[in-house]
Amino acid sequence: MTAHHPSPPFEKFDHQDKVFAQAFSILQEAIHQQAFPAASLAITHQGNLVALKALGRFTYEPSAPPSSRTLREGGDFDVQSDSPEVGAPFLASFARSGQGAVNPTTLFDLASLTKVVATTTTAMLLYERGLLDLEAPVSAIVPEFTTDKEKDPRRHEITVRMLLAHSSGLPAYEKLFLKARTRNELLKAAFTTPLAADPVTRAQYSDIGFIILGLALERLADESLDRFCQREIFAPLTMTNTTFNPPLEIRAKIPPTADEREEPCGSDTPVRQLPKASPPQSASQQGIRSTFRQRIIQGEVYDENASVLGGVAPHAGLFSTAADLAKFAQAMLNQGNRILRPETVTLFTRREPTPPGSTRALGWDTPSTPSLSGKYFSPQSFGHLGYTGTSLWIDPTRQLSVTLLTNRTWPDSSNQAINQIRPKFHDAIIEALEESQ
């Protein structure tokens, strides 16, 4: 593919603090209330980068107030998991020395945004090149999906489209890492995960489905997901701060997402002792605090299944900045300009007609009622959430994109307050843009 060297969206945010004062205030108050320690955001509007802002610190200040624990029911909550590598003993110094402030170049763990930025875009490119048939049975690409003698015969019905649309019948999430300690073992566990429903009878957001989809895409591309994405997506869009498995030397500059130590609170650490919230109602969600890796998770993927896969996974593992995601979003708003054809973008971002009631497009999600994107994004909008507290929403009608990155899972994942903050934040942005016009 011919290399492209695009310029980023035209920067036009000299007055962002005035124009988006209310939206920024919502995030600042959320940090004060310990909904998340750090946040980074980018807004593009009508081809311009109109806001690029970072708030907070890597971890909470010791004197911060107790956190809010209100859980928003319903909406389009993204169900996700945990993750891998070297701990960060220097975290203890952040609160004492005032270090650890985030800035617009800070990388965040994108969690499930990996599904759209990396995996779905890979599927779109392979589809354009005639290498991916959406109606092909998954078993035609990944025979291991159906070859076990005790396999459910319904698995033969599952197509690539169903995996992308989260309508395959596979369950949302399984702690595969508890029984699989290598990549091959985890993939085998995914292949043998029982269906939770008949194919195309209901939409159920599924990490398991995307793990299988990712392997199918790698086989079709004859290349690993990270290498394909780097050459075909990140490089053409000059997303120079987007990567799987950030190098060791920069991990200290990435906000931590979890404290998985057996004794999370000591005299030398800024971690708060959190009361244990009630377990999530969904069986697909994990428990409140994992001790799987017994260390602080910083600069390595939060998701534990992705960790066992080596940090390069189709459902989680990508790290990036708000500015890089603004470049990606602008490419999508420009109908895929530089990497994709307009008709491909339309096909993959349009809500699927089946199963009835689904908000899912192919890989992407669309606003539900109510939606964590707020009340103003148009029906043509598409977006996605990430379990670590990330989101990307794109509205072609308004020519608007909003990227929000946080580490709301620090020090554990019990605090769900971000689900109240997200819609307020998005609404404040659109209200500000309408007032400024």
Structure description:
It is built from 13 helices and eleven strands. It starts with 9 loop residues before the first strand and ends with a helix. The chain is globular and about 60 Å long. The protein is 29% helix and 11% strand. By secondary structure, it is of the alpha+beta class.
Question: Any key phrases for this structure?
Answer:
3-stranded antiparallel sheet; 437 residues; alpha+beta; 11% strand; 6-stranded mixed sheet
Shape: globular
Estimated structural class: alpha+beta
Strand order within the widest beta sheet? 1-3-2-11-10-9
Poorly predicted segments: 1-6, 63-98, 264-287
Number of helical segments? Answer: 13
Order of helices and strands: EHHEEHEHHHHHHEEEHEHHEEEH
Number of strands: 11
Rg over C-alpha atoms, rounded to the nearest angstrom: 20 Å
Secondary-structure blueprint:
Blueprint (H helix, E strand, L loop, with lengths): L9 E2 L4 H4 L1 H12 L5 E8 L2 E9 L35 H6 L10 E2 L3 H16 L9 H4 L18 H5 L18 H9 L15 H15 L3 H10 L8 E2 L13 E2 L36 E2 L6 H5 L9 E3 L1 H12 L8 H8 L32 E5 L3 E6 L4 E7 L11 H19 L1
Helix pairs in contact: 2-13, 4-8, 4-9
Short account of what is shown:
With 437 residues, this protein is of the alpha+beta class.
